[in-house]
Amino acid sequence: MITFKQIKTTINKKLLSNFDIDVSSKSANEGFTRPSFKVELDNVRREGYLTQVEKSCTVRIFYFPADEIDNSVELLDVQEKLGDLFDLKFTVEDRHLGINEPNFDEIDGVLQFEFDLQFFDGRESGINIEDEINNGKDWYEKHPIELMGELDDEEGD
User: Fold this and answer.
1) The domain containing residue 105 runs over which residues?
2) Buried b (16+ CB within 10 A) or exposed e, 84-117
3) Contact assessment for residue 63 and residue 15, using Cβ atoms and an 8 Å cutoff
4) 150 found inside a domain
5) Taking the chain, what is the end-to-end CA distance rounded to the nearest angstrom?
6) Is the confidence at residue 112, as pLDDT, over 70?
7) Euclidean distance between CA atoms 58 and 103, whole angstroms
């Protein structure tokens, strides 16, 4: 199963290997160096089903440029490179996850890149689903269900 921690770690490693720039885990009010990245996962969701687990999240990558004032070209360069790195698919472990709704925005001189991930993981349990299905068939063969006939519409009701 892929964990949200693995997703964030993989993104951080991908940023570090493609940019010679620090990836910070500090909050903005704790201070940070420029240039640097910060990665956050938001709207994290996990929904369990009998045989699988659906997971989804929004990935937000913030880029704090070297120059707080004169940074428009720098932001465009980083935007282009991030778009290439996180194009259609994102690989975590041996899985390729589809990237949905990528979006760039600049807020107060900080580049924000976000995209959604949604995927399913099989449950790791000792239950053999085929055996469960066959057991269900055996039970219904021993205990057949009688279908209801049509209900008579009685006049006067």
Assistant:
1) 4-142
2) ebbeeebebeeeebeeeeeebeeeeebbbbbbbb
3) no
4) no
5) 58
6) yes
7) 11
Edge-first strand listing for the sheet containing 95-107: 22-24, 36-48, 52-64, 110-122, 95-107, 89-92
* Residue closest to 57 by CA, chosen among 7, 110, 123: 7
Strands 36-48 and 52-64: antiparallel
Cα distance between residue 108 and residue 4, in whole Å: 28
> pLDDT tens across 17-74, in order?
999 899 987 776 777 789 999 999 999 999 998 889 999 999 999 999 999 999 999 9
CA 155, 156, 157 angle in degrees (round to 5)? 95
Domain membership of residue 90 (yes or no) is yes
Task: State pLDDT tens for residues 121-135.
Answer: 987 666 565 666 666
Cβ atoms 120, 97 nearer than 8 A: no
Determine the Cα–Cα distance for residues 155 and 157; give it in Å rounded to an integer.
Answer: 6
Q: How many domains does the chain have?
A: 1
Q: How far apart are CA 24 and CA 115, in angstroms?
A: 19
- When pLDDT is cut at 50, 70 and 90, the band that residue 119 belongs to is very high
Is there a domain that residue 10 lies in? yes
pTM metric for this prediction? 0.77
